[in-house]
Amino acid sequence: MLAPVACIQTRKILACLRTTCEQLARLFTYGGRMRNIDNSACSPETAAVWAGEPQESSHGATQVPVVLSVGFGYEDVHSWQAAAMGETAGHIYSRNTNPTVEVFEEKLRVLEGAEAATSAATGMAAISGVLHGLLKPKDRVVSVKDTYGGTSVLFAEFLPRFGIDVDLVDTDDGDAIVESVERGCDLLYLETPTNPTLKILDLERLIAAGKDQGAITVVDNTFATPVNQNPIALGADLVVHSATKYLGGHGDALGGVVAGRADLVDTVYHHREINGAAMSPMAAYLLLRGMKTLFLRVERQASNAMTIARFLEQHPKVTQVNYPGLPSHAGHEIARRQMRGFGGMLSFAVEGGYDAVTRVIPRLQWVHRAANLGAVETTVGPPATTSHVECTEAERAALGIPEALIRYSTGIEHVDDLVADLDQALEAI
What we know:
Elements: H1 4-28, H2 44-50, H3 77-84, H4 99-112, E1 116-120, H5 123-134, E2 140-144, H6 149-161, E3 165-169, H7 174-182, E4 187-191, H8 203-212, E5 216-220, H9 225-228, E6 238-242, E7 256-260, H10 262-275, H11 281-291, H12 294-313, E8 318-322, H13 332-338, E9 345-350, H14 353-363, E10 368-369, E11 379-381, H15 393-398, E12 405-409, H16 415-426
């Protein structure tokens, strides 16, 4: 049995521990304590750094803590239930929500000017969550042929299994897209610039057509990023991103995010929380770290891409350059109207077909030959091993993707080094 003095000391220690735990609980419960930042309160560059960040953090840390806990405890059942029902701020289980992930979602919500945002484990988890969460049998989807390869597989293979009608229209034919929408449309899915052909869709026109039919309008904004384009401001209901790419920017974290109308985001969130494709807290931390330099990176990448596109356009061994910043690009005027910059992605075709591609790519020095994009390092590859690896050669041809195409994700290296590297590699043809 403890002596009276020891009991008093024990009670003091326990009281101190209880106070400390309560303080930590408050610090790690970010809900309702986010910095009140929106696009009208500061510039987007500032929001990329500060939006969603908690005003206080454990031990005065200046960076968002990585909360790896799966579960979150409560002192009594009533407060636990209130948090579980969404009546009060708090987290229950990290498959549903997590403090670190919540900060990432809020930052992207602010940058896209959306009512709400929710995350997913990957970009494809976000896209499939939108499609499977919002569509039902006998619904009709209209999209274009140039969407990312994984998205194309959803349209061609997965959605038809559930009795969903999909019409993929020629990306270059705006009139045909509008006509298809007018024949009935429950969801209009757009991607601009497209991957990997960098085609540009007239968002205002197509979204308006979708709205006239009562369709949900969704735009993949991965290539453009919030730096260069905000589809919600142009009327879109939802925006999706592969956060793995430009948002993270360092090629070290997988993630996806959906932002837009609160009611639709809630539905997508419910689908994701039940199906389980949750973003990990560590990935959210890495993506947050990357987003703080989003504007610096994308602006440098876009500047480099413009110089490289101009160089390639004049090269005798290059037969086609796809970059919306070039006046020769078919979608240049639309891009100028709806984008603030043209981005860091481009693609180009070379003389000699796929055989020439296999000779040029290995000679490049300042690149990663990998199936990724949007990182600080330049990354290259043909669609056959990157964006449309899921498709056969015939399927790629039907989608308007030539085998002679090279996708080039421009990094932040010195542009003179990148141009010289391309010049020497093209000598292989």
